[in-house]
Every structure is written in C-alpha cells, then in structure tokens.
Amino acid sequence: MIRVAEGVYVETRFKGGNVGLIDTEEGLLLVDIPPNPADVKLWQHQVMEVGNKPILYAINTDDHPLRVMSNNLLKVPKIAHQAVWEDLATPKAPYRQIFREFYKAYRDQEPPDNFGDLMPAMAFSRRMSLYKGRRLIRLIALGGTTPASIVVHIPGEKLLFTGALVVTNTHPDLCMADSAQWLEALAYIKKLSVKLIIPGSGNPCGKEAVDKVAEYIRKARAAVKDIYKAGKSRSEVAKLVNDFLPLFPVSPQSENEIKALIKTGLSHIYDEFKAG
Fold it and tell me: What pLDDT, on the 0 to 100 scale, is given for residue 45?
C-alpha cells in the first residue's frame, strides 16, 4: 500500500483495479473494493494496520461489476451514484450479461440471481460532500466509463481518485461507456485544481495521464466512425485491434484478454454511432 498524502493511501497490486483509503479523525473511508474475495480479506487487514478506527463507508466509483461484486463481502455502508442503485435493484439483461462474465472470471461460479446484498446504502445523482473531522471529501458524478462514474476529490490535498475514468497501466475499458461523455469527464478533470491523480488502475500520476486516455478515446471514436460511415459492418472493427494494442502496456500473459477487451470496446463505440 502506497501513502500518497497525509492519511491517504492506495493499493495498486490487486487484480481488477486500485483501491483507496482515506483516514479521517472520525474513521476510515474506502474507495472501491477488490473483486477477488481473497484480496478483500487482505485489503481489510491492510486497512486495520493504518489505524484502529471504524470503516465509515466504502465508495463505489461506478457500477462496473469489478467495482460492486464484492460489496456484500465488506459489511459497511456503501455510497455510490444513483445509477449503481438502479442497476443493482432492477438489472437489465445487458448488465446481467456483463456482470455474469466478470463474476465467473473472478469467482468461477454463477452470480447470484438477486443483487440486493450488493446495493449501496446511500446514493446521489450529482454531488455529495462528506465532512469528516477536518477533511472535506467531494463526490462528483461525471459519467463516462459507465452512467454511474464518479470521482472522489480531496480538495485539501489537491488529490483526485478517478476510478476507471483514468488508467495508466492498462487499456481503458469501453464496454459500458458513453465515449463522448467520457471525453467530457476528462476535460472536467483537467480543469480541477489537483496535483495528484489516483487512477483506477496503475500508479499515481499527474494530469498527463488524462491526456493519454483522452487521445485513446478520440482515436477509437475516429477509427470506428470511419468504418461506420463507410457502411461497413460491426465485425470490421476487429481489424483495428492490433493498431490499438501498443497504446497502453500489455503483458504477454494478458495479450489475448486485452485484445478481447479492445474489440469489445470498439464494437460498443460502433453501436453508439449506430444508435445515433
């Protein structure tokens, strides 16, 4: 676990993305929960080593299955965007399918039929401010990676947890995205007065990482738009995968997985253009 500011920590080693810890005078706030049950236990142990304080809340930065599938394993109130509550309360078929794919990949079993145990205790639609001791923590809804994407801003430290809106060591996951809204979210992040960004995956970084993700999305949208405007079929986006593969780090053992991720994301953008 890395200490990135006074009382603020990030763990970057768990599969599925980063998780964060904010230590306040009143207790601890967690940013996301690891999807792997063994990692949840390890994370709890690390959290307790920071300080013998109660965990007040865990914050879900979006409703991607990787961010919510372990909500029932950590018995503390969850805070999330209203869309997280809605997707878990009345999940539609596309969300169920994506949830099933990730759940089976991480748990090697079928997901529960009912997502009631995963639902947040508190939800908001635009902004939420938490005042804990001398800390102000601002939750800001931006959308982008999913309709439920939020950032966690600690103004006093000029620090921002971006969730999956910004990543540094893996390809952006476009499978549930509104790609145009994602670009708007990144533009908003660029304007915030922050010196340190905690990305959804990878090491803490500066705003240069925001530019890299934005360029990736712009390139993806332009390439797919050319295919769509030419009247070509959705399957044609598969020919773009190798062009995008080198744009973010890829380990040899994960190459096939990342290629599938890129193809799914480009196909999703095609569907966005088709839907108008």
Answer: 95
Q: Calculate the alpha carbon distances from 260 to 27, 177, 227, 243 in Å.
A: 41, 16, 19, 13
Residue 12, both tokens: 């970057």
* Mean of pLDDT over the chain: 97
- Write the DSSP symbol of residue 155: G
- List CB contacts of 54: < 8 A, sequence separation 6 or more: 27, 28
Contacts of 93 (CB under 8 A, 6+ apart): none
- Which SS3 state, helix, strand or coil, does residue 78 take? strand
* Cα–Cα distance measured from residue 49 to residue 11, given in angstroms and rounded to the nearest whole number: 13
pTM of the model: 0.96
Residues of the chain short of pLDDT 50, as ranges, are none
Assess whether 219 and 101 both reside in one domain.
Answer: no
The DSSP bridge pattern shows strands 8-11 and 2-5 to be: antiparallel
Out of 174, 191, 207, a domain closes at 207
- Going from the C-alpha of 227 to that of each of 100, 150, 269, the distances in angstroms are 30, 31, 11
68 token code pair:
């919510």
Residue 273, classified by CB atoms within 10 Å of its CB into exposed (0-12), middle (13-18) or buried (19+), is middle
Cα-flanking dihedrals φ and ψ of residue 103, to 5°? -65, -45
d(CA 59, CA 80): 6
Which residue is associated with the tokens 């079993």? Answer: 109
- 198 and 219 share one domain: no
CB atoms within 10 A of CB 156: 13
